[in-house]
Amino acid sequence: MDANKMDTLLQEQRTFHPPDDFQVKANFNNPDIYESALRDPESYWSEQAQHLSWFTPYESVCDWNPPHAEWFSGGQLNAAYNCVDRHLTDGRKNKAAIIWEGEPGDRLVLTYDMLAREVNRAARMLKDLGVERGDRVTIYLPMIPELPISLLACAKIGAIHSVVFGGFSAKALHERIVDADAKILITADGGYRRGNVIPLKANADEAVEDTGIDTVLVVKRVGAAANASMKAGRDVWWHEISQSTSAAPLAAEAMNSEDILYLLYTSGTTGKPKGIVHTTGGYLVGANTSMRSVFDLKDDDVFFCTADIGWVTGHTYLVYGPLSAGATTVMYEGSPDYPTRDRYWDICERYGVTILYTAPTSIRMFMKWGSSHVEQHDLSQLRLLGSVGEPINPEAWMWYHEHIGHGRCPIVDTWWQTETGCAMIAPLPGLTVTKPGSATRPVPGIDADVVDEEGNSVAPGNGGYLVIRKPWPSMLRTVWGDDERFRKTYFGKFDGVYLPGDGAHKDKDGYIWILGRMDDVINVSGHRIGTAEIESALVSHPAVAEAAVIGRADELKGQAITAFVTVREGVTTSDELVTELKKHVVDKIGAMARPEEILFAAELPKTRSAKIMRRLLRDIAEGRVLGDTTTLADPSVVDVLQAQYKEAD
Ligand code: WT7
User: Fold this and answer.
1) pLDDT bucket at 435, cuts 50 / 70 / 90
2) Ligand 1 centre distance from Cα of residue 442 (Å)
3) Ligand 1 site, residue 394, Cβ cutoff 6 A
C-alpha cells in the first residue's frame, strides 16, 4: 500500500458501535467469548463442532505437531451430508438453498430437496464415469448451478475437487490439472461475460492434452454460439448422462475428519501456484462457525456473496458456509454492471437479501458510478454488510455504510486467505466496535498478533508481521505434493507460528489494521497474483530478456500491474510489442494478470548481488521520490527509468 494511503488509514478515528437492536438479537453477544475462547480454544472449537452432524464422534479435538495439525481425529462426517441431506429432515426440505441468477437474466431456485436430488444424480454420474474416493476432479465452470452441485457431488463420494476459476487460460488450467493429477474435468461449452461468450470448452480441450484426464464432462450452458466440439470417447454431455441417472437418495461416504475435501490453487512468491489442501472436518467447522459468529446467520437470512466459486471466498461463503448452516445462498453469474449498473441492487431487492458480502474494489466502483443506481432499489431488508479481499479504505467503508447500509447495518471487514479457510480477523457484528479500515480483532478461537522481526508482539501503535500463533480447524494442512514448500512458506520464519505474508499495524486499542502483502504477491481487484508468475510468463516470450513486475497503487483495483521489461539483442520495441506481450500474459495466465502498462528498460535496477530492487520500481511507478539507491550496482539505471516513466505517463 502506498505511504499516503497508509497514513490516512492509520489516522482514522471514527468508531461505530453495534446498534442496540442488532446486539440484543445477535448470535454472539456475550463479550466473554473472546477471553474464554483464547484461554481454551479446544473447548471453544469442540463446542462449535457440535453444530455439524458427525457419523462417528471424534476422539480428540486437536493434535498439533508443528507445522502439522489434525483436528477432530477419529471423527467421521461428510461435507455434502452436512450441507444438504441433513436439511431434508430438519425442517428445511422446501426452503430455498440456492437462488441463482444468470447473466442473461435466467433464474432458478433450488430448494434443499431439489439440491439433494441434483447432488445425488451428479454423484452417481461421477461414480459411473469411474471417479473413486480420493480421486481429484478438476472443475472449470462458469457460475451456474452445476458448479456448486459438482462440488457437493465430489464431497458426497469422497472425491477431491479442485476448482479452477473460469477466467484462467488453457495453460493455467493445464498446469493445475497436471499438478493435481486429476482424473476427470468438469467444464461447460462456454460461459457468459458481459454479453460475450467465453470459450471454456476450447480452453479445456487445449488444457487436457498430455494430462491424465480421460473424461471431460461438459455442461451445455451456451449452446450453438459456443461452437464447442466434442471428442468421441472422451467428452460427455452432462445433460445427456443426467437423463439416465437416478436422483434417488444416495448414502454419503463416511469421510475421516482429516480426509482431503478440496485443493484450491493460489499464487505465491514463485512462479508455480500452490495447491492449498483443506480437509473435511476442520474446514467445515471453520466455515460453519464463521457463518454464525461473523455473519450472525439466522434461519430467515438470505445471504449474497458476490465472489466467484473459483476463489476461496466462493467455496466458503457461497457453498460450504451457508449451506452447512442451512441458509439461502444467492449466486449470480454475471458482472455488477451488465447490462445495467444496478444489477446487485436489483438482486438484493428482488430476493430480499439480508446479508451482502462483497469486495472493496466493487465498492469503489459503485462509489464512482454514483448512488443513483442504488437509490432506485429498496434495500431495507439488508441488515449486515461484509467486505473481503483487500484493505478497505475508510472512504469506501463510509460510503458502504451510508449508501448501502443506510447507517443501519454493521460492517464486517473480514481478513482471511485461501490458506486460512474462513474469516480470521473480523468484528462480531453484535459485539465489536468497528473502525472504518480496520478488520478489528481476531475472531474467537484465533490467536493472531502483530510481531517484530524477532517474533515478539509489538507494542500498541506499532507495525510488523501479522502472525497466527495457534492452529485453527480450517487451516491449510499442506501444499499439495510439496510439504517442504508448506513448511518454508508458512512456518519458516517463526518456529511453530503461521506467517500469512501480510504486514499489519496494531493501534492503541489493540485493533489490527492490515496494510497489505509483504512478499512479492500483489492484489488486483481482490485477486491474488504472484509477480513471479507474470514475470515468467513475460520471459517465456522470445522478445523478452528480463522482466520485473510490481503492483502500483490504483484507485479502483487496489493495485494495478506494471511490468518493466528488457528485450533481447536485436529486438526493436514498439507499441505492437506491448500489445503482443500483454496478450501473451493473458494466454499464459488469464485476463486478470494482464499488465496495465509495460515499460521497456535498457536495464533493470539491481543490487550488487543481482537482486532486482522492486521497491525502487514501485517508487517510479507511483511517482515518488526514490528511496535509498546506494545499494544499487548502477544507480544511474533508475534515473533513466524514472525519466522514461514520466514521459510515458
Ligand atoms: C490476501 C489473501 C479470502 C479472501 C479472498 C482473498 C488480502 C483479504 C482482506 C481484508 C485486508 C485482505 C490479504 C491476504 N486480504 N482480505 N479484509 N483486509 N487484506 O483470498 O486470494 O488467498 O488472498 O488477501 O493480503 O493475505 P486470497
Assistant:
1) very high
2) 14
3) no
- Give the C-alpha distances (Å, rounded to integers) separating 26 from 21, 297, 411, 425: 9, 9, 14, 18
Residue the block writes with cell 472504518: 436
Residue 637 has pLDDT above 90, yes or no: no
Residue 523 CA to ligand 1 centre (angstroms) = 8
* Amino acid type, 647: E
Predicted confidence (pLDDT) per residue in 573-623, tens digit: 999 999 999 999 999 999 999 999 999 998 998 888 888 888 889 998 888
Instruction: Say what the pTM is.
Output: 0.95
Phi, psi of 632 (to 5 degrees): -70, 145
The alpha carbon torsion through 463, 468, 474, 478 (nearest 10 deg) reads 100
Residue 389 CA to ligand 1 centre (angstroms): 4
The Å distance, Cα 376 to ligand 1 centre, comes to: 32
C-beta of 116 in contact with ligand 1 (< 6 A): no
What distance in Å separates the CA atoms of residue 450 and residue 464, rounded to the nearest whole number? 6
Task: Say how many CA atoms lie within 13 Å of 362 toward its Cβ.
Answer: 23
The Cα 438–Cα 397 span in angstroms is: 10
In angstroms, the Cα distances linking 24 to 102, 290, 298, 576, 639 are: 37, 19, 13, 62, 61
- Atom from ligand 1 closest to the CA of residue 517: 25
CA 67 to each of CA 27, 87, 420, 498: distance values in angstroms, whole numbers, following the listed order: 33, 36, 14, 8
Residues 251-283: b if buried by 16+ CB within 10 A, e if exposed: ebbebbbbbbbbbbbbbbeebbbbbbbbbbbbb
Angle at which helices 32-39 and 41-49 cross, to 10°: 110
Ligand 1 atom closest to 307 (CA): 5
